[in-house]
């Protein structure tokens, strides 16, 4: 007997297409997998030209059950008239289908949701759909489905937004996922940004860009989103807002990135001082890789640059004793000096950095980078960490940036992190087995061509606060800066970005609009929260703990699901909730979906080791070394300070429509709601009152789509949906 299934692909309002989804009625037959037919592979090819997207979507579905299954393929779309050249192929054969308007489609959506006990389709209940029959799929058989169509990409608030609603696959993770996107614009492209996935961007020229994403166990609950804007300035600025409620403050994200044409512009003349640890522990492969890195850096210096090399162990020795121009002869001599670097002795960090700083004259305002590499703790001269930091602070000026490299686990992270925080530089931790040369040359390539230094941002017309980073980094060729913050009032504003180009001050003005209400860009709030938490943890770490700072970290951690030394209990709660869910409903779709999401997060490095790292932090300056210290610093840097993607740390925490939800006892419960209140309105999942509530508001449907058991506050009433 054939089991009837429904395969659905959902199209979001913000455009393009969604992924295949298998819907199977519960309760499942004995020994039937919770997800009988699984989407195992997706290859997406997109060509966007003059803001029209031509899409080809290839999907592989595998019947994981022991039964022969048949069903329907459903593709949801917001308006039939918006889709052109729509084709569906099943195993290479063109298949006829039926287009239904939103009224006819609604009953199908509701029927699927009712039988599946899965409300994920609810937020798409207003859309029309395309429906086609699927021939029986044998056990363990894989069925290939291909979609092709074209559609206009929407433009709003200065950005084009392209979206692939992957979460409508109904899976916690997709085994193999690949996106190949060719973007061609009528004028120069400016900002290109994905808040959802870590993409590779290859700019062919100012108007043509190739974008790639490829991953294993890709999070099935996260849509692929791509923003792009057009160039209008030498340094382009763009703004995104998120404000789901007009009675609360909003969140914003501002980008500044050089126009593509700036790659031909002459970079600002700079000074670079290399300070290299050659103590005994740097012997063997480490010193060889350090030599290779130095050779690369010296060779790519511009002719107007100046440089010096300082090697240190127990003593401190320099290449020339002064900053000198990077001419051919000087580079040749420097390479000879590098070839003769050998490892021996102790580690005099204090004296080495002080000598580097003394090379700069007080009235010399040329931007200066100190590239500092060490694999050990200070053992010679001054060894007290806080005293070393104090000495460096007294000597360093506003135009000096430290770029620190800590090699291995026997480094002091308090020292390396504190120094770059003061100088507005960066720190890279090269773990055992990783390549030193690759780490240094990669960073030096990014910072070798500064375009604007000593940057500042001012916003006039809108009241902003809690802006991060508080000190803006310099702007380099091919690199952008990203600023996040909060705003109180909406409306038009003038954003001014200023900085130094050689000896003159320059400014760039941007007319922007902060949205009165914007519900789509919820990732901005999470990225802002990560940066604020990182800022607060640094204050606690370097200036001391106080109750106000700790409470702020706890509040943000609980609201946005951020693991910190003060919210590590969230990890324990997650383990307990998943274990309890497996006992109550071991073969349910929710359990399977959460397990798949857990696998997806583990594949991105978000698991036990990362949780331990984020949950630890050494506040003792002289004891901040070893495996835990290095992992803690590098993990917070990766997922809080520098991340541009909204990667969840915990899979039982979600933020929807500006509300924070946590999975507790099988219910997605809004944080702060009194679950014991006698005023709670309990409504039956997919009953008449439930459907009436669902039809009230689009944002409400997003909340209901969390699951069939949700507790939330809506317009001063508390609702509880139950199965």
Q: For the largest beta sheet, what order do the strands appear in spatially?
A: 7-6-10-4-3-13-16-15
Please bin the fraction of helical residues: 25-40%
Q: Name the structural class.
A: alpha+beta
Quaternary status: single chain
In one word, what is the shape? globular
Separation, N- and C-terminal Cα atoms: 29 Å
The biggest sheet amounts to:
8 strands, mixed
Secondary-structure arrangement, i.e. CATH architecture of the largest domain: Sandwich
Radius of gyration: 28 Å
Kindly describe this structure.
This protein has 723 residues and is α+β, with helices and mostly antiparallel strands. The chain folds into 5 domains: 228 residues, Immunoglobulin-like (Sandwich), CATH 2.60.40.3680; 95 residues, Gamma-adaptin ear (GAE) domain (Immunoglobulin-like); 178 residues, 3-Layer(aba) Sandwich (Rossmann fold); 117 residues, no CATH class; 58 residues, no CATH class. Helices cover 26% and strands 36% of the residues. The chain has an 8-stranded mixed beta sheet. Strands 20, 21, 22, 23, 24, 25 and 26 form a 7-stranded mixed beta sheet that branches. A hairpin with a 2-residue loop joins strand 31 and strand 32. The radius of gyration is 28 Å and the shape is globular.
């Amino acid at each position: 007997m054939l089991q009837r299934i429904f395969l659905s692909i959902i199209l979001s309002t913000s455009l393009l297409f969604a992924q295949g989804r298998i819907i199977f009625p519960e309760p499942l037959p004995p020994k039937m997998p919770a997800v009988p037919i699984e989407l195992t592979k997706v290859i997406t090819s997109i060509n966007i030209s003059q803001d029209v997207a031509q899409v080809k979507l290839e999907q592989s579905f595998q019947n994981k059950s022991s039964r022969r299954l048949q069903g329907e393929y459903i593709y949801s779309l917001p308006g039939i008239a918006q889709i052109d050249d729509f084709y569906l192929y099943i195993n290479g054969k063109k298949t006829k289908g039926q287009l239904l308007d939103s009224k006819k489609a609604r009953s199908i959506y509701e029927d699927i949701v009712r039988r599946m006990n899965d409300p994920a389709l609810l937020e798409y209940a207003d859309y029309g759909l395309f429906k086609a029959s699927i021939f029986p799929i044998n056990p363990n058989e894989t069925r290939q489905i291909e979609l092709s169509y074209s559609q206009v990409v929407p433009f709003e608030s200065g950005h084009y937004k392209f979206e692939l609603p992957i979460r409508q696959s109904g899976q916690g993770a997709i085994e193999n996922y690949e996106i190949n996107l060719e973007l061609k614009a009528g004028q120069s492209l400016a900002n290109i940004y994905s808040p959802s996935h870590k993409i590779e961007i290859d700019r062919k020229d100012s108007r043509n860009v190739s974008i790639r994403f490829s991953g294993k166990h890709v999070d099935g609950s996260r849509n692929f989103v791509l923003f792009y804007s057009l160039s209008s300035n030498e340094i382009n600025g763009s703004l995104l807002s998120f404000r789901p409620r007009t009675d609360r403050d909003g969140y914003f994200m501002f980008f500044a990135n050089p126009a593509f044409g700036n790659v031909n512009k002459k970079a600002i003349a700079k000074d670079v001082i290399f300070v290299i640890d050659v103590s005994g522990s740097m012997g063997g492969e480490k010193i060889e890789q350090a030599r290779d890195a130095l050779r690369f850096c010296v060779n790519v210096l511009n002719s107007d640059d100046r440089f010096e090399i300082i090697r240190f162990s127990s003593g401190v020795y320099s290449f020339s004793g002064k900053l000198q121009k990077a001419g051919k002869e000087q580079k040749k001599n420097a390479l000879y000096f590098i070839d003769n670097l050998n490892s021996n002795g102790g580690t005099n960090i204090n004296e080495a950095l002080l000598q580097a700083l003394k090379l700069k004259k007080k009235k010399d305002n040329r931007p200066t980078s100190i590239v500092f590499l060490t694999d050990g703790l200070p053992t010679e001269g001054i060894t007290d960490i806080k005293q070393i930091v104090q000495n460096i602070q007294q000597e360093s000026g506003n135009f000096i940036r430290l770029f620190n490299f800590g090699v291995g686990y026997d480094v002091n992270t308090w020292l390396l992190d504190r120094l770059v925080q003061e100088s507005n530089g960066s720190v890279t931790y090269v773990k055992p087995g990783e390549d030193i040369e690759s780490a240094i040359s990669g960073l030096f390539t990014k910072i070798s061509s500064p375009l604007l230094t000593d940057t500042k941002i001012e916003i006039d017309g809108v009241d902003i606060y809690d802006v991060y980073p508080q000190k803006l980094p310099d702007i380099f060729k091919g690199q952008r800066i990203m600023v996040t913050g909060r705003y109180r009032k909406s409306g038009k504003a003038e954003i001014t970005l200023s900085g130094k180009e050689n000896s003159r001050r320059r400014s760039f003005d941007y007319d922007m609009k902060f949205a009165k209400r914007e519900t789509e860009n919820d990732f901005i709030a999470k990225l802002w929260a990560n940066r604020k938490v990182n800022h607060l943890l640094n204050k606690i770490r370097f200036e001391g703990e106080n109750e106000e700072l700790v409470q702020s970290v706890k509040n943000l951690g609980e609201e946005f699901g951020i693991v910190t030394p003060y919210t590590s209990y969230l990890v324990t709660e997650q383990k307990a909730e998943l274990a309890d869910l497996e006992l109550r409903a071991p073969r349910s779709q929710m359990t399977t979906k959460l397990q798949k999401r857990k696998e997806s997060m583990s594949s991105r490095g978000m698991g036990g080791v990362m949780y331990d790292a984020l949950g630890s932090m050494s506040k003792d300056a002289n004891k901040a070394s070893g495996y835990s210290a290095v992992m803690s610093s590098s993990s917070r840097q990766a997922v809080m300070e520098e991340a541009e993607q909204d990667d969840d740390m915990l899979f039982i925490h979600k933020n929807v429509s500006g509300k924070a939800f946590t999975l507790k006892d099988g219910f997605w419960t809004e944080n702060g709601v009194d679950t014991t209140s006698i005023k709670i309105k309990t409504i039956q999942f997919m009953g008449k009152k439930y459907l009436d509530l669902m039809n009230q508001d689009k944002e409400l449907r997003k909340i209901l789509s969390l699951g069939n058991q949700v507790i939330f506050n809506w317009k001063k009433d508390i609702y509880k949906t139950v199965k």
